[in-house]
Amino acid sequence: MNKLASRLLRVALVVPLLGTVLVQIGLPMLAAEEGRIFPEVAYLVVPYSVAAILFIGCGQVALLAVWRLLSMVDGGVIFTRRALRWVDLITACAAVATVLSAGVLIHMLSFVPGGGGPTVYFLAACVAGGLAFVLLMVVMRGLLESAIADRAELDGVV
C-alpha cells in the first residue's frame, strides 16, 4: 500500500476517534441539561446517556480494529487468519451498536411521551443500515477467507 495513502488513512481514523472522545466527555453534561429543560423525561438521562456512550464506544473499537487491519496491510500480513478476528470485531461492534440504538428507539416508541412520529423512521433506518453494514462485513470476511485460502494454495505451489 502507498505510504502516503496509509498515513492519510491513519489521520482520517484519528480525527473521528478524537472527536468521539470529546463527544463522550460532553454527552453527560448535555443530557443533564436536556433533563432540566424537559423534566418529564429526566429519568431517562442516565440510561440513554449510557447507551449513547456505549454506542460511540462501539464505533471507537471498530476504528481501532480498522487501524490494526491497516497495520497488517502495511506489514504485508493481511492474508492471515489473524486478520479475521479484527473483521469479526468490527462486525460485532456494528451488531452491538445496532441493537443498542434500536433498543433505545423501541423504548422511546413504547414508553416515552411524544416518542412517536419520526422515531419510527429513525428505527427503520437504524435497523436497515445496521443490518446492511453487518451483512457487508460478513461478505467481506468471506472474501478475506477466500483470499487467505488462495494465498496458502499459491504459497504451496511456489
Describe what this molecule looks like in 3D.
- This protein is mainly α and 158 residues long.
- The chain has one domain.
- The protein is built from four helices and no strands.
- Helix 2 runs antiparallel to helix 3.
- The longest helix is centred in the C-terminal third of the chain and has 40 residues.
- The radius of gyration is 20 Å and the shape is elongated.
- It starts with a helix and ends with a helix.
- The relative contact order is 0.09.
**Overall average pLDDT:** 93
Number of helix segments?
A: 4
Share of residues in strands: under 5%
Low-confidence stretches: none
Largest sheet: none
Report the strand count: 0
Which radius of gyration do the C-alpha atoms yield? 20 Å
Specify the structural class.
mainly alpha
Q: Please, how many domains? A: 1
Q: Give helix and strand order, one letter per element, not per position.
A: HHHH
Large-scale geometry: elongated
Question: How much helicity do the residues have?
Answer: over 70%
